[in-house]
Amino acid sequence: IIKHSPNNNLRAGNSSFGDSSSPRLHASTFENDMVGYNFEQEKMLSQLTSGSTQMEVISVTGMGGIGKSTFAKKLFSHPSVLSFFDICGWVTVSEDYSYRKMLLGLLKDANIGMEEELDKKSDSNLAVCLKQSLMSRRYLIVVDDIWSKKAWDDIRLCLPDDDKRSRVLLTTRDVEVAQYASSPKDPFQMHLLDTDDSWNLFYQKALAEKGFPIEFEDVGKEVAKNCKGLPLMISVVAKVLSSKRTLEEWRKVAESVSSLANVDAYQQCSGE
């Protein structure tokens, strides 16, 4: 959690809960680069920092690897957001969800109570502590990669609504979870990148300021196209190619990358 103290110093933390033993590719692996969403970003920033005084939930949904976490991260770190909210917190829920770990993580990040004391409290007492710490504050909580309505119900009970313009930004692959959390408002649906934005992202990751000859661009465009508009896949492949210096190596990747763009197989390994 980021707490805005009177002297404007910030204390930052990040809570991530789930099966840490399984290898997963997250958007957070890469820098906060985002292409193709300038209009949507401005609209979302407006929703976060204006409008109703009631606490609102904004859901972002889409397939794995499409950039939900990167989009949320871009909004979360925007100067207008950091200056607007008293408290900003981020929790990654994941499929293997632990309610207690979520509570402990947020409380510890917020420096509320000693760790040894918190560990002795029951789940219900931890939830009360968290809710009280957010009371009368304007907060933004990002709930990233949530998989179930049950997990959202648990988290929602800890979030007070006292007309401070607090917001929750939620990301999920499950459209039903997104609709459930943000009802009656519709969730924001992420879209695949078009050809131009795919190439721009690939160029930024693999070729910009790296001194590659112009011949590499043709191969790069083929690779970007074969990534089927998935930003995380483009970033992964571009990162690999940025360290390879021969056209032969690039062409080998170009020949094989289209098979990696099989959406079902990709979603199983991406975990975005």
From TrEMBL:
SUPFAM superfamilies: P-loop containing nucleoside triphosphate hydrolases. GO terms for biological process: defense response. Pfam families: NB-ARC (PF00931). Residues 42-209 form the NB-ARC domain. Residues 1-23 are annotated as: Disordered. Keywords: ATP-binding, Leucine-rich repeat, Nucleotide-binding, Plant defense. InterPro entries: Apaf_helical (IPR042197), NB-ARC (IPR002182), P-loop_NTPase (IPR027417). GO terms for molecular function: ADP binding; ATP binding. PANTHER family: NBS-CODING RESISTANCE GENE ANALOG, PLANT BROAD-SPECTRUM MILDEW RESISTANCE PROTEIN RPW8. Belongs to the disease resistance NB-LRR family. This is NBS-coding resistance gene analog. It comes from Nicotiana tabacum (Common tobacco).
